[in-house]
Design brief:
Helix content: 40-55%
Number of strands: 7
Distance between the termini: 56 Å
Number of helices: 11
CATH architecture of one domain: 3-Layer(aba) Sandwich
Strand content: 15-25%
Largest sheet: 7 strands, mixed
Shape: globular
Structural class: alpha/beta
Strand order of the largest sheet: 3-2-1-4-5-7-6
Length: 262
């Protein structure tokens, strides 16, 4: 049996290695690596989100809730819900009757349920969390009215397969809302973002999290090598959605995609 002293002197190897980070989306082990990575950073995840988005992340989630246009009595499914920030935003800021948060990583769901228990009954009572895979959702066809996913679609092993699942479980006319980091178009903002996300943030976030998994080196690499917005829109349309559109937020740092189930 390994002792605590041996654990500290011989820490577990990082999840991501430098060679893989050239294009982490090409890794056949991407799904298991992403789950291990988020398990490692779960307890510091919210703090790092706030600090390193300069508190914009909450505004982006509020925009996503508004974009969904939730009607009274509708059901919202928040995929890759993580620690539940967007799930809670839907419960608190929309007339949904039920908001279901699904995530691949048990450690993230543990934090989400702890947060839920501290919320007012009117908000907490709307929320239900369960573990699940975005590419194989345990929900019947045409069973929900809104599907959301915030900063999670690029972490899925096969994003097109996940978007196809979203189409399957949405009722006709149901809405899909995707938040994802983007590469700013304006040169000065793009240059600053490249330095901030590529050099500063990986170092400060890793220190704040005490992380050895490589999570915050993965983040900028996964954004930079992910499909561009034009291809994302094409993918959404090809999976059975109409009226697909994208809106830039915060000078292009974030993109909000919206579409309707055909």
């Amino acid at each position: 049996m390994t002792s605590a002293t041996e654990d500290r002197t011989n820490p577990a190897p990082p999840v991501w290695h430098e060679a893989e980070l050239a294009n982490p989306h090409a890794s056949e082990e991407k799904a298991s690596k992403v789950r291990s990575m988020f398990a490692a950073i779960a307890r510091s995840y919210d703090l790092n989100n706030r600090v390193h988005s300069l508190w914009f992340d909450q505004a982006w989630r509020r925009h996503a809730v508004r974009s969904a246009g939730v009607r009274p009595g509708e059901t919202v499914l928040d995929v890759a819900c993580g620690t539940g920030d967007l799930t809670e935003a839907f419960a608190a800021r929309s007339p949904a009757s039920e908001v279901i948060g699904v995530d691949f990583t048990p450690e993230m769901l543990e934090i989400a349920r702890t947060k839920q228990a501290a919320r007012k009954p009117g908000v907490a009572g709307k929320i239900r969390y369960q573990q699940g895979d975005a590419m194989a959702l345990d929900f019947p066809d045409a069973s929900v009215d809104v599907v959301s996913i915030a900063f999670g679609i690029r972490n899925v092993q096969d994003p097109a397969k996940a978007i196809g699942e979203f189409a399957r479980i949405l009722r006709p006319g149901g809405r899909l809302v995707i938040l994802e980091f983007d590469t700013p178009r304006a040169a000065p903002v793009r240059w600053f973002n490249a330095w901030y996300c590529g050099w500063l943030m990986p170092r400060t976030a890793t220190l704040l999290a005490g992380d050895r998994s490589g999570a915050y080196r993965y983040l900028p690499k996964s954004v930079g090598s992910f499909m561009p917005r034009e291809r994302m829109l094409e993918t959404i349309r090809s999976c059975g959605f109409d009226n697909a559109s994208v809106r830039s937020l915060s000078l292009g740092l974030c993109a909000c995609y919206r579409a309707e189930r055909a």
